[in-house]
Amino acid sequence: MMNDTMGxxxxxxLVDGNPTGLVTAEIVNWSGHVLSGSRANLPDFLQxxxxxxxGIYFLFGHDPDDFDQPMLYIGESDNVRKRLAQHNKDNxxxxxxxxxxxxxxxxxxxxxxxxxxEARLLSIANDIGKINLLNSTAHSPQVxxxxxxxxxxxxxxxxxxxxxxxxxxAFRAKPKRNTPRKNSAGEKTLSSETPVIFEIKANRxxxxxxxxxxxxxFIVLSGSRAAIEWRQKPGHNTGYAKLHNKLLQSGxxxxxxxxxxxxFTEDTSFSSPSAASAIIFGRADNGxxxxxxxxxxxxxxxxxxxxxxxxxxxx
Length: 315
Description:
The chain is an alpha+beta fold. It has helices at 42-45, 80-87, 111-128, 146-167, 238-250, 273-281, 287-290, 300-312; strands at residues 10-14, 23-27, 32-38, 55-63, 66-77, 96-104, 132-133, 198-202, 207-214, 217-220, 225-226, 253-255, 262-264, 268-270, 292-293.
């Protein structure tokens, strides 16, 4: 076991120069390689060469019915690109906000190693009990030679060290509307296309809103309308209810002229389309279906699936 008091050097690389975009992480003298990014960046994520290797992946998010409850799905695959594209079409993964994939730089992780890592990490997460696991089953670790088990246990130590560095962030700058740009190599990416505007229209509730994705976040644009109060019963979706109240108290949501809706006074970022639409409707909502591409009869989910399909076959 390594000395817990020893310092560690973690090398982070912001692929597109933005802390909310794609991030890679490596620990000195560790063969592992970590790639992290938001679900909004999945099309660019899927073009990364790391996904050609066998690896394990983590889907992080929050319970749509209780934003205070973090959720996690752990998986393994020898074709991570294909597996993530499949998950993106799964309604059971609506909680998913951020993705993290762990592979090996020397490509010595086999399918058996990946299954061992998956089972052990599921067991560890269950024992800690701080997060709601979405995996339906937790199987026993793959049987490996003694030397391989020792290597994989060391690999797990490093994963547990680096994941909090790349997945959780506490300081975010105020959001900026998306503008086309190039990556660090000067090449255009899918995210460098003309920004797409999404919209919600609920005439019966006198609500309408516009949003767009930028740097891995979903931004509701100023002037959009939202519910004037939280509509669900007390005790339900308390995290979103607290956020809705906080936005009203801070003035980011201001009571509209007709007194039956609130107005966003500035561009406001959310972790996902569903988080944004929940605040707009004043109740839990699947924003992937509620948001639509402005001027087109296509939902956010369908729009993203088309981009993910394109990205997953580009290589």
